[in-house]
Structure formats: structure tokens, C-alpha cells
Amino acid sequence: MVMSIISPKAGTAHNCQKKGHYSQQPHRNKMENHPEIPQQPESISQSRTLQVDFTWKKWKALISEKDDPASKPVYIIDFPFKTAPSLVVKSAADDSTIGTGTLRPISINASCELHGSPIELTAQKRFKTQYTHLSHSFSDTDAPVPMHWTSSSGFTTWNFICLDQNQLPVAKFSASVWAVKKIGNIEFLGEKAMSDAARDEIVVTGFTLYCCMLLRCNSVLSLFGAVFSRPGHDDKGKLGS
């Protein structure tokens, strides 16, 4: 899984898997057109952007503020050589664990843990990047709200877009298809753009989803998992209280 992070493929698992081989040559996904994304109201329009870089020497991903390249990383992502978790997101300031992501060899769903609370990334389609999870960080009440992930792909980028319960974009992870070190950027939008809690959630869930789709593009087991899955019927997306 870690090696796929260095050589991502554009598109969905369907396009990668149904041909029976897993080429290093990325391609445009014909099934996923660039979605029409609603714009945030101008009165609450805010944004911040993080950049994701991979270091071969330390085998880690470093996430820092894009507008301040000289700044120290905000997050460090480790990729343990064990079954679970598949990735560990840590605070670069104090090395504390922010969250983890766990990929499954067959199931097309993925699991996360954010500050000790479980989050389930649940597939809504078999062969398209369409996932949901429940969020406390984006809720204005004590009850979690559903968040929706989709994607669009091009020749150079693979975009993972997170929409809130009102179908407004709150984040976009733009992964570079041809990158060796500079994996991509994570842009935060809307009234929660400056929220540290929302930032933590997007980094953990977004990077887990990215790695999940890379695994699906490279694994024949994931193909069988997609064929026999029941998207939308076995949703276990629960957050810890």
C-alpha cells in the first residue's frame, strides 16, 4: 500500500481493476465526470491550504502550511509495516496521535479513528469513489452529521472532494498523479476552514480514503470485495461519543 502512495493512479477502482492488470500509467476516468460543486456563500467564504510531501528517507508524509513553505510540518503520517492500522497521523508539534486509518484487503470500506473515536468510511457505490462518514466536527449540535466524499480525475490530478450535509464543499484533496515527492494539496473551505477539529478530521479521513482508493486500484481482492459488497445497505458509519 505504501508504494502506491508514491505512484498514485487516477480514476476509480472499476477502471483500474476490470482490465485484469494494474498499470503504472494513470488514465482519465470516464465514469466520473468532474462534478458540479456548489459554491460556498461569499459571506462565509474562507480557505486554507496544506501541502503533502513524501520523504523517502523517513518513509513518512509531511503535511505543512502551503502559504508558509519554511514553516515546520503540522502533521506527520507514518505507514507502519503491519496489518493495522495502515497509517498513523501524528501532530508534528508533540508527536501525539491525531488519528489512524485502517484499510481492508477485501472490503471496500475503510476505518478511521480520530482522537480515540471510531469513524467508518462507507462506500455508497461499488465502482465509483463515493463514500460517506459521520462527523461531529462539522455538526452544530451534539448529533453527528453525514459527510460525503466524491472524486474527479484528470491527466495530472486526482481530486477527492468532501461535501457537508448541505452538499457544500468543505475540503478538497488534490493528489498529483505523477508525483514522486509532492503528493498534493488539501484545501479547506467554508466557515469551518479555520477549525482545527475540522482540519484534523479531513486530514485523517481524506488521506485514509486516498490510500483506500489506491489499494482498490492495485488489488484483485478489492475487485471481489466490490462485486460482493452491498453499498448503502450495510452502513456502519458510527462515531464514538
Automatic annotation (TrEMBL):
Region (Disordered), start-end ranges: 10-46
Name the record gives this protein: Uncharacterized protein
Species this protein is from: Lachnellula hyalina
